[in-house]
Amino acid sequence: MSRGGAQFKRALIFVHRWMGVLFCLLFLSWFASGIVMMYWQYPEVTPDDRLSRAPALDASRIALSPQAAYARLGSGGEPSEARLITFDGRPAYRFGFGDSSAIVYADDGQMPEEFPAEMTLRIASAWSGQSRGAAKEEDLTEEDQWTVSEEFADLRPLRKYSWADGQQVYVSAVTGDVVQYTTPRSRLAAWFGAIPHWLYFTQLRKHSQQWARIVIWASGLGTAAAILGITLGLWMYSPAKSYRSGGAPASFPYHGQKRWHAILGLLFGVFACTWAFSGMLSMDPFPRLQAGRSSGVGGRIAAALRQAPPLEAFSAKPPQEAVAQAQVTYGIGVKELEMTSFAGEPAYLASLAPNETRVIPVHGQPAAEFDRAQIISVARQAARPFTVTQERLVTQYEAYYLDRENQLPLPAIFVQLDDPGRSMYYIDPKSARIVQGYNSHSRWNRWLYHGLHSLNLPWLYKYRPAWDIVVILLLLGGGSLSVTALLLAWNVLWRKLAPWAAQADASRVTKS
Fold it and tell me: Using one digit for the tens of pLDDT, what is the confidence trace for 447-496?
């Protein structure tokens, strides 16, 4: 090797060594917490959580029509969304206006403009199933570990209710809704999983821009460190075993931890590199690239499939009649009733349980789903001037439509267009909603982020626990690589710091 080549190699080794010192512990925490996050996520309240804990609507207590209830608000026009729910034990209409909403009780037309402590305590108690008298209340005006993200900013102040069994329920004093819920198990899993994995510590996360920059730079520099390690490993590796170690031929000129680090680096370095890089992509560091140019056709299709019709359209079949009809037909209570329209015809979408809905047309009989042929027809018309080049029924998960928790609805209707982005959409016939969509600018994200970071490949998901075994083995391999890096980093620091520490001790002895 030339003198210049040797100097360049030494420079690479120097840079990689000190990058390893800086990032070995972070990589180890990422791999370890990744195993936890395979099965436990950060605590949150999802629509399914709300629905599973909601009581069935009592049709006999619904006295007001949607139109009469909306008139109480005096808002004029039409709401963007209208639902019938149970709020604080009473049937109530929730009218949506973009990012805001208003509640009108369906039994007497009252409008709760404030949500006093006694009300939020009842709501939290009903959610947890615990006694109101046993609750410990705390008013929160600032972030804590479980309400640190921006989504809670407009919901504060929050009232936090805690019980002896460890349940914690956060209720917004602005909306009266349960907005966060944790248990001892979910908090413990978060501390070993999502919090170290996302660097989601309160004092850092509450400064969202600084937090995002730190995560992007940490994962970006970690990717660079992994690339350097792979480059050096390939450079030093000798298939012909031209090195000597312990008197025997060897593929690496190292022994001990260095040798193990080199071997593990060649085995798992590529995974460590792609995992750090795809983790950086989760922070959307290239928003222009990801957003790209959009034709807006997806919004047109969504709007054509589902709209909020004039509320008087539901006078022909009042909500109490729709709830009673669903009860008789399906033998199960309705927990939520959405007022909508499909292809211009008013209809109720009744939610019976998470991922279980029924269509109750204002003019017609209840059905399990909307008409599939009509869904495709509406999509074709809304997509103009572009045309649908492919349409099919998806009955099992595939490359662009999959979910290891099996939460995405099946069957789904797939349509692809000839627009510049070659847009593709998956439509749920049970709700007539687009549940997944891609174009040429977002397809790359599916593979470079989700594909590399979660290994969400159809054949691995289909034959579980194949996915679990592969991912755990890779994470354990990456963790082992990080452990060897941590030991080497300690050796480097000890060699640098030990003489300084010894000199400092000698100086103190001399002075004394």
Answer: 988 899 999 988 899 888 999 999 999 999 999 999 999 988 888 788 87
Residue 190 placed within a domain = no
Asked if residue 512 is part of any domain, the answer here is: yes
Question: Where in the sequence is the domain holding 257, given as residue range(s)?
Answer: 1-41+196-292+453-512
> Which one, of 417, 145, 453, lies nearest residue 283 by Cα?
453
Pair (404, 484) in one structural domain: no
B/e letters for 371-402, b = 16+ CB within 10 Å, e = fewer, are eeeebbebbbebbeebebeeeeebeebeebbb
Residue 171 three-state SS: strand
Residue 188 lies inside a defined structural domain of this protein: no
Instruction: Provide the CA 280 distance to its chain's centre, in angstroms.
Output: 15
User: Structure pTM?
Assistant: 0.90
Tell me the per-residue pLDDT of 62-115, one tens digit each, with 9 for 90 and over: 999 999 999 999 887 889 899 999 999 999 999 998 888 999 999 999 999 899
Beta carbons within 8 Å of 109's beta carbon, 6+ residues apart: 63, 64, 68, 69, 72
Q: Could you say which of 182, 207, 235 is where a domain stops? A: 182
- Taking phi first (over 0 means left), then psi (-120 to 50 degrees means alpha), and beta for anything else, what does residue 256 get? left
Q: Which residues pair with 501 in a beta bridge?
A: none
Instruction: At 355, list the tokens.
Output: 């991922």
Domain boundary among 159, 182, 205: 182
- Per-residue 3-state assignment (H helix, E strand, C coil) for 108-143: CCCCCCCCCHHHHHHHHHHHHCCCCCCCEEEEECCC
Considering the domain architecture, whether residues 378 and 321 belong to the same structural domain is answered as yes
Q: Is the pLDDT of residue 17 over 60?
A: yes
Q: DSSP class of residue 57?
A: P
Examine the domain organization and report whether 321 and 428 are in the same domain: yes
Q: How many domains does the chain have?
A: 3
CA distance 41 to 27: 19
Model confidence at 291: pLDDT above 80: no
**Are the CB atoms for 62 and 319 separated by under 8 Å?**
yes
